[in-house]
Design brief:
Alpha-Beta Plaits; 4 helices; 3 strands; binds copper (II) ion
């Protein structure tokens, strides 16, 4: 029954490699903090991550959390943080440069609004 064992081992290896491919394709959901103060920020943040590989993005203004579902095969979480920085927004992992931050609208200068979340502007 040697050949039977061989086929069994081969099948096992095949299934293992297929499931690891499926694992790579599996969408990942994450949530992290992004600086923002108003609806303009919300739109800008969601637009910044409206790229291939990102399936879902929703920014919550109340708690400054961005919920994301993305395909790790197409885009990495680091790339997503970079996109947000490019749009002028800080994330909990990566800060926008002063240059990037300066590009956003003055009413959106969230760094100055840190202690003023309920401010309506
Ligand atoms: Cu804003």
């Amino acid at each position: 029954m040697k050949s039977f064992k061989y086929i069994f081992a081969l099948t096992f290896a095949l299934v293992a490699s297929l499931s690891s491919i499926a694992q790579d394709n599996k969408p990942v959901s994450v949530e992290f903090t992004v600086g923002g103060v108003c609806e303009m920020c919300e739109k800008r943040i969601e637009k910044a991550v409206d790229v291939p590989g990102v399936i879902y993005a929703d920014y919550n203004l109340e708690n400054h959390k961005l919920s994301l579902v993305y395909k790790p095969k197409k885009i990495s979480e680091d790339q997503i943080h970079k996109l947000l920085n490019e749009a002028g927004h800080d994330t909990e992992k990566s800060k926008a440069s002063d240059e990037q931050y300066a590009k956003i609208h003055s009413c959106c200068q969230y760094r100055e609004h840190v202690h003023d979340h309920d401010h309506d502007h």
